[in-house]
Amino acid sequence: MDAFHPDLPGHDHGSDPAGGSTPPLRARLHHIRADALDGDTAQTGGMRRFAAISGGSVGSERIWMGQTHVAPGTASSNHHHGESETAIHVVQGHPEFVFLDNSGGTPEEVRIRTSPGDYIFVPPYVPHREENPSPDDEAVVVIARSTQEAIVVNLPELYVLGTDALRKSSRPGGT
To answer: What is the pLDDT of residues 101-129, one digit of tens each?
Structure first.
């Protein structure tokens, strides 16, 4: 156990306050070490996601948090995250986030170039992809989502939110 509290097992009282031998997941803080992230999560080609905070790991009900690694010279597949709001914090490298914008009346590819310390917000259902243009360095970002688990809907192409492609891809059984 990587915590100290007199009411946690293995300390002075030897049991949790409710009388059991192990406190419920939602009755204590959790420490997830960097080397203990779980790679068994929804994936997109060209990148690798690792869960840290999830229902399975800590009993979370409304948040998912983890890391994404994008290898040098790699682009992810196009995808969206369903109903999840996604917040991204760039830790390493200079990943680029690509989406289509229709605010000018004609769909246009927009590429957001980032640096360590930057943040990105991805609204629900917005198709996008991540790219790592560096030929040498891996890009690493920390991700937080408003849903308890990672939702990933892989797509054949980017499209502007609100088009027929969105309705088709977000239906059960869509790509």
So the answer is: 998 999 999 999 999 999 999 999 999 99
State in Å, rounded, how far the first CA of the chain is from the last one: 41
pLDDT band at 26 (very low <50, low <70, confident <90, very high): low
Alpha-carbon gap, residue 35 to 41, rounded angstroms: 16
Please give the distance of CA 97 from its chain centroid, rounded to a whole number. Answer: 14
Assigned token pair, 28? 């204590």
CB 144 within 8 A of CB 84: no
Handedness of CA 129, 130, 135, 138 (dihedral sign): negative
Token pair of 86 as six digits: 């996604």
Of 150 and 164, the structure prediction assigns the larger pLDDT to 150
Per the CB < 8 A criterion, the answer to whether 139 and 145 are in contact is no
The reported pLDDT for the residue numbered 135 is: 97
Which ranges of the chain does DSSP label H, i.e. alpha helix? 55-58, 164-170
**Spatial distance between the Cα atoms of 96 and 90, rounded to a whole number of angstroms:** 10
- Cα separation, 160 vs 166, in Å, equals 8
- Which structure tokens are listed for 138? 């891996």
Amino acid at 66: G
Burial class (CB in 10 A: 0-12, 13-18, 19+), 59: middle
pTM: 0.72
